[in-house]
Amino acid sequence: MRKSILILAMILATVNVSAQFYVSASGGYSIPSAGVQFGTETTIAGVKNTYGSYGEGMHTQLRGGYFFDNTFGVEASFGYLHGTDQTIRKVTVPGNNVDVIARARAYGASASLVYKFTNNIYGRFGALIKVGGETEAKGYIKQDISGQPSPSGGNFPNGTYNETTFTQDYKGRLPLGFIGALGYKYELSNKVSLFAEFEYMGISVTRDKAIFQEFKSEIVTPDNNRTVVATIDNLPIGYSKEILYVDELTLTEAAAAEVNPYARKQLSEKVPYSSFGINFGISYSFGK
Predict the structure, then answer these.
(1) Which residues have CB under 8 Å from 42's CB, separation 6+?
(2) Which residues face 139 on adjacent strands?
(3) Is 245 helix (H, G, I), strand (E, B) or coil?
(4) pLDDT of 269 above 90
(5) Which of 32, 122, 248, 279 could form an SS bridge with 197, CB 3.0 to 4.6 Å?
């Protein structure tokens, strides 16, 4: 019995000597790991697809970890992604100018296992979830309506156009993804280290709803006289302030969704947040 207690005490003492708790902060930039078709770009030369991932952009992370010995450890992190603009629809032709972009503002968390290959090189892999944030779409539409009938009678004079701006927020269902990284650590002291990492995040978000936050449509005449024809409280016919993304539609709902992307119900779709990124950071160790 005493022998068993002595062996257990020696094991605990060994773990305590080599165990190490640390915290770190990092920042970096991510690029799409696999470009997914987001929309189209139209010019007088033709139409082409646009590709990307909402995971592209600047990101920061705060982490806390614990090494059980000189080789194995665990780590939890919390991060923020400030995504770059992705082209959803762009039209540049005479009389019609459309520019609709979307970008991610997302918070995520991960839990990973960490393995040291050497004192300087390590790897980590684990699970990733998106815990907050949204995807924001901003749109600008300018359409020439010269010569078209005016509600006040007659036709609009040459140079008259309809100008619409809007902001729409997309919410998603809770996703689960994968995170993995290979890093190099350089010790400045026995407590402080600098590190650089090559990181992969594989995750997609299923859309749940979209909500108009801003909407304004005006008719602008050549003398710059502006007349408001629609607002967030008075949307055009067929526009829904809140759009629901569902897995099934009736034939009537499907027909409406096909001709109008702003109808009340749309088929749900997955949007990519997957990326390759480079991180640079600093860590502080509390253990020995």
Answers:
(1) 90, 91, 92, 93, 98
(2) 100, 166
(3) strand
(4) no
(5) 279
Indicate whether 178 pLDDT > 70.
yes
Write down how long the chain is: 288
Place of tokens 């080599």: 18
Q: What are phi and psi of 161, to 5 degrees?
A: -140, 160
Q: Cα–Cα distance between 82 and 59 in angstroms, integer?
A: 6
CA gap 59, 72 in Å, rounded: 26
Where is mean pLDDT largest: 6-10, 33-37, 213-217?
213-217
The secondary structure element, H or E, covering residue 6 is helix 2-18
**How many whole angstroms separate alpha carbon 42 and alpha carbon 253?**
28
What integer pLDDT is reported at residue 19 of this predicted model? 56
Q: Which amino acid is at 13?
A: A
Residue 219 confidence (pLDDT): 93
How far apart (Å, rounded) are the C-alpha atoms in residues 96 and 138?
17
